[in-house]
Design brief:
Immunoglobulin-like; 41% strand
Length: 146
């Protein structure tokens, strides 16, 4: 019931145009027009969440990532859209985040040109990886009475 209410709240927020938060599923690709302001994932400590973000390095725009190395490990891989590509050719940033703590780990993404430090980023995204108990993920535990 709690999960159903959470999903309903997310759907209503998105419909109202204030969809600032979304749950991330592994393998999801977020195109620039669909990047939410916040992504949330529930994983056990040591498990990864992975997704892709569209970027366009051929025009200078790339995702900058900021995080606390004590909270999580972040692995980034740029695909396509290199500076040698046709101007405007899109690429993808593959992201894998592994939580190292039991409390929420935060990763901030900013889509901007690296040399434009005094300019607001074109897009901003925060990923929050919440620690999930054994009972929240996967199959329910087997309980037996003795």
């Amino acid at each position: 019931m709690k999960m159903l209410l959470r999903r309903l709240a997310l759907a209503l927020a998105a419909f109202a145009g204030i969809g600032a938060m979304a749950e991330v599923k592994d393998g999801t690709t977020f195109w620039l027009g669909t990047v939410p302001k916040e992504l949330v994932a529930e994983r056990r400590m040591g498990e990864s969440v992975s997704f892709s973000l569209e970027e366009n390095a051929s025009t200078g725009f790339k995702w900058e990532v900021e995080y606390n190395t004590n909270e999580c490990t972040v692995v980034l891989k740029h695909r396509g859209g290199d500076k040698g590509a046709t101007c405007g050719a899109p690429g993808l940033l593959d992201v894998a985040v592994t939580s190292r703590i039991r409390t929420p780990a935060r990763v901030d993404f900013r889509y901007r040109r690296p040399w434009e430090k005094d300019v607001e980023p074109w897009k901003a995204l925060r990923l929050v990886v919440n620690s999930a108990s054994e009972e929240k993920i996967g199959e329910p535990p087997i309980r037996c009475a003795l």
